[in-house]
Amino acid sequence: MKKILVTGGLGYIGAHTVVELVNHGYEPVIVDDLSNTSLNVLDGIQAITGQAITFYQNDVRDLNAITKILRDNQIEAVIHFAAFKAVGESVQQPLKYYDNNIGGLVNLLKAMQTTQVKNIVFSSSCTVYGEPDVSPVNESSPIKKANSPYGNTKQIGEEILADCQFLNTVALRYFNPIGAHKSALIGELPLGVPNNLVPYITQTAAGIREKLTVFGQDYNTKDGTCVRDYIHVTDLAIAHVKSLDYIKNHPDNKFEVYNIGTGNGMTVLEILQAFEQVNDLKLNYSIGPRRAGDVEKVWADASKAKNILGWTAQLDLNEMVRSAWAWQQNLPKNAI
Ligand code: NAD
Ligand code: WQD
After folding, report:
1. Is 150 annotated in the active site?
2. Residues 233-252: b if buried by 16+ CB within 10 A, e if exposed
3. What's the 258 CA to ligand 1 centre distance in angstroms?
4. What residue's CA is closest to ligand 1, atom 6?
5. How far apart are CA 147 and CA 293, in angstroms?
């Protein structure tokens, strides 16, 4: 099993995963419709790997195109990143999210069934746990009613995959990926005003945003700000490689889900302090009101991934915030 289709492979997590696939002897083929990225990312991937990577600009909802790509490239497994991911937008435009995230998945699975490709790694999310009763959460923790259409697409996506018994599926529930490749040639590329914490921090440090607002300091946590499990995107990328290795060695696997996090909860203020310290700068920030829909605290019990996939996070918070800033500084101003 070598030839891997990576949908959404020019996105943030996809690009880092393509690099790690090449590093570990796999042959990635990318499909991306460029709806949330730029073709420059392909240059970054190729500069890092020193290899030409096959790329198709197609929508995963195009059944004929995806079937042909699977067939022409003799694809043996798929990593499915392609989806929309903005939680707030999904509340405003739910059908846009159901259409792409569910329609895209169903379409991809039809193409896989036709071409008899049965192996898939799926991007799920810690959002399926909602506000957990206790952290760390493990894979048996309750799935709470989703608090956004986006979150619901991940819950439904997992259910669809579990129902498809012809598949060998590994679903990865990512916690909060941050940071960038150590080369600073690829990283997160938010189009417009970022929703997520770390791109907002780096853009504030770069002077693109005037000030960062910390959303609430009255939570029941050690410093009053929310707790998350931030994980380096390269560690997350390697979890996909380990998942493919697992699928290859367990051809009878049907559906398994794994938390992918470090196992450490960090507050917003701890992230800000680490960013300032490691990069030796001062951030302009103030405490504001809570953001609607935010979970107070959630972090992973990642022992299942350790025990079964043989994966653990290797990179620490210092490397996460260092690489995030190096990437921001390497970005041409007009890239945003
Ligand atoms: P991203 O937006 O950077 O990457 C997604 C890529 O998919 C983009 O390049 C986009 O152009 C492409 N795409 C979207 N719809 C497509 C379609 N119909 N056809 C072809 N290409 C399409 O997002 P990301 O952060 O890299 O996230 C990747 C996956 O991981 C998503 O499924 C997301 O929901 C999931 N996820 C992300 C996070 C996170 O915090 N970034 C956390 C948990 C889960
Ligand atoms: C992190 C923390 C904010 C911005 C989202 C999705 C989730 C998953 C990961 C896909 C929170 C605080 C943020 C800012 C702040 N994605 N914050 N000021 O909300 O944990 O999760 O991304 O599946 O589904 O909901 O990530 O980066 O937005 O926020 O204080 O300007 O930073 O309140 O505590 P979140 P985030």
Report:
1. yes
2. bbbbbbbbbbbbbbbeeeee
3. 18
4. 8
5. 7
pLDDT in tens, 300-312: 999 999 999 999 9
**CATH architecture under which domain 3-329 falls:** 3-Layer(aba) Sandwich (3.40)
| Residue 334 pLDDT greater than 70, yes or no | no
Bridging pattern class, strands 285-288 and 212-215: parallel
- For the chain, the first-to-last Cα distance in angstroms comes to 37
Amino acid identity of 68? K
Tell me the domain boundaries of the chain. 3-329
Question: What is the crossing angle of helices 149-163 and 104-115, to 10°?
Answer: 20
Beta-strand ranges (E) seen in 36-133 are 54-56, 77-80, 119-125
Cα of 14 vs centre of ligand 1, distance in Å, is: 8
pLDDT tens sequence across 103-144: 999 999 999 999 999 999 999 999 999 999 999 999 999 999
Contact call for residues 128 and 173 (beta carbons, < 8 A): yes
Cis preceding-peptide flag for 136 (omega within 30 of 0): yes
